[in-house]
Amino acid sequence: MRVTYRREMKVKAEMDALEVPAFVPMRRIMQRGSRLRNTLEPAIHNLIFIHATEEKVQALKKSRPELQYMMRKMNGKMEKIVVPEQEMEDFMKVCTASQDFVEIVSADGIKLKSGQEVMIVSGPLQGIRGHFQRVEGHRSRRFIVTIPGACAATVEVKAEEVMPIT
Question: Based on the domain organization, do 64 and 111 belong to the same domain?
Fold first, then answer.
């Protein structure tokens, strides 16, 4: 879902208080001030993933006007983006397993060409499916987990850690 005015962390805290599972992709940044600090901030502002039924989401939207559905055009009409559970679990695993090496890209920044669909067979991301291909701005090929219409997470993995899916 979209959250207006960069309130994603406030809404996440409210969801946690209501015991509604929510996820905000984070990235690590170096923040300058009186001292250099390593802090976490939302990787894509105004984006939050909420795990709930349609009825629960409707009730949350009524009580929190800052929540809006993310939409994408499918079959000539606009539809809400609903992420299958396995895809979301894979995306969350990639985002949280190695935050220092993960790059989160918004839907506008995703320019995927045909890439080999693969599964990671070893390491902390074992069992995750995605694509293995070159990404603009990186020398080596990267592993990509995509949430269509929303965002993608890319991480560098070794070629021997992936197996093509046929």
Answer: no
> What's the number of CA atoms in the CB half-sphere (13 Å) around residue 109?
14
Both 27 and 93 in a single domain? no
Residue 76 is assigned to a structural domain of this protein: no
Question: Mean pLDDT throughout 71-81?
Answer: 92
pTM: 0.84
d(CA 57, CA 1): 10
Contact 118, 132 (CB under 8 A): yes
- With b meaning 16 or more CB within 10 Å and e meaning fewer, what string describes 90-103? bbebbbeeebeebb
Identify whether 91 is part of a domain.
Answer: yes
Number of helices followed by number of strands (H, E) in the chain: 3, 14
Is pLDDT above 70 for 108?
A: no
